[in-house]
Amino acid sequence: MPRVPSHLRERALGMLQGGMRTADVARAINCNVRNVRRLRQRYRETGQTADRPRSGRPRVTTPAEDRYIQTSHQQDRYRMATTTARVIPGTHNPSISAQTVRNRLREAGLKACRSVVRQVLTRRHRQQRRLWAQTHRRWTRQDWQKVLFTDESRFCLTGGDGGIPIYHQRIEPYAEACTLERDRFEGGGSVMVWGGVSQHHRTELVVIAGNLNAVRYREDILLPHVVPFLQAHPDMTLQHDNATSHTARSVRDFLEDRNVSVLPWPEKSPDLNPIEHVWDLLDRRVRARAIPPRNVQELAGALVEEWGNISQQELANLVQSMRRGCTAVLNAAGGHTRY
């Protein structure tokens, strides 16, 4: 019979002992009259109202098949549950269901989540990252607050991070086996923006029409935004990554002519730049708006508005995490970090 909650069983027993008819008791607790009769019979035989023990639904897989499911998905993190279900025969059907596979994986602590997408790191990249972290791990907060972290980012109207579902345990979302490496990140109809943040300041958010090359970076970003900012704060250092628009000779000569100090930066290291977390925060704030943007013009306006709504304390907390980021790179031997 269907399980009746314990408080209703006690209530029904009191009604029966009070002289109520079985049908009236069943109507009062909204259950079948046979349930009440079995409850009364169980109380007479055992002296309690606890529900009888049940064997539960029989398992359609053997212990050996359970181990096979768990082992195969640990060896191949991108294996789909439907693929495993096709090769395991069921008790009453030609094969088990994909949900059964997911249940067995959940019992082993494996859960399907989107993989972390990172850039490909060669041996040379790892060595550069490790040497850079060794050089800057002893920098203090006072040193990092003199750095202006800058970068460009592209925001799409449609969501999706390109991650592929992958099975991993709760403690290993950033493990090498659970990381998807790509040379290039793609997007759809979108808006590119540039910005800079530091411990106590931030620049304007600049909307970039189209793509960014060295000439546009020099004329549209450095000249009107970066140089005036650094002239107002002469003790600060510029940080930008090794994109071709940043490392072109014309850009280097432009910065040298204006005595702009540039922080050396290792290749393929977006996880070291705290502004990457600002882009993530900005994206979440835009998507959480009551009326989401419907076209690129509205998206650009929403990005500029939300950029100004981010508190300076949030930016300061990200800049202060640089020492922990350097330590994480050294612990990973120059590899990927969870930052």
Explain what the structure shows.
With 339 residues, this protein is of the alpha/beta class. Helices cover 47% and strands 12% of the residues. The protein has 15 helices and 8 strands. The strands form 3 sheets. Strands 7-6-3-8 form a 4-stranded mixed β-sheet, sandwiched between helices. α1 (6-17) packs antiparallel against α2, α1 (6-17) packs across α3 (33-46) and α12 (275-287) crosses α13. The model is unreliable at 182-188 (pLDDT under 50). One of its GO terms (molecular function) is DNA binding.
Summary, kept brief:
The chain is α/β, with parallel strands linked by helices.
How are helices and strands ordered from N to C?
Answer: HHHHHHEEHHEEEEEHEHHHHHH
Please tell me how large the radius of gyration is. 30 Å
Sheet with the most strands: spatial strand order? 7-6-3-8
- Derived from helix and strand composition plus strand pairing, the structural class reads alpha/beta
Described by strand count, sense and barrel closure, the largest sheet is: 4 strands, mixed
Mean pLDDT: 86
Distance linking N and C termini:
53 Å
Helix content: 40-55%
Give the total of beta strands: 8
Question: Runs with pLDDT <50, length 5+?
Answer: 182-188
How would you sum up the global shape?
Answer: elongated
Strand content: 5-15%
Number of helices: 15
